[in-house]
Amino acid sequence: MFAIPGKQAVTITPKAANQITKLMTSAGHAGLRIGIKKGGCAGMEYTMEYVNEADVNDEVVEQDGARVMIAPMVQMFLFGTEIDYETSLLESGFKFRNPNVTEACGCGESIKFG
Predict the structure, then answer these.
(1) Three-state SS letters, 53-110
(2) Residues pairing with 24 in the sheet
(3) Is pTM beyond 0.85 here?
(4) What is the pLDDT confidence band of residue 100, given thresholds at 50, 70 and 90?
């Protein structure tokens, strides 16, 4: 919907692709759908859910065996985002580096778009 020919809506780092592939395999799903919903102290939050098949209007990004689906209504907010997976002593999880975000809360869980 908001695609630029030859450019994927999001990129997936090798660590994130490995984790997404593990989740897809262990849970038996076709991929993960990423989105955005209202919530959090900055106004919006990222969402991730298992899906068994892509919706006809989803943007499907496949990289290194990982498959991510993006619903049409949030593609413009996620375009140019890099999805990474980070592990530290205290936590591990997916990190979104999104050039469209204008503000984020202190914990990094919620975001705001300009």
Answers:
(1) CCCCCCEEEEECCEEEEECHHHHHHHCCEEEEEEECCCCEEEEEECCCEEEECCCCCE
(2) none
(3) no
(4) confident
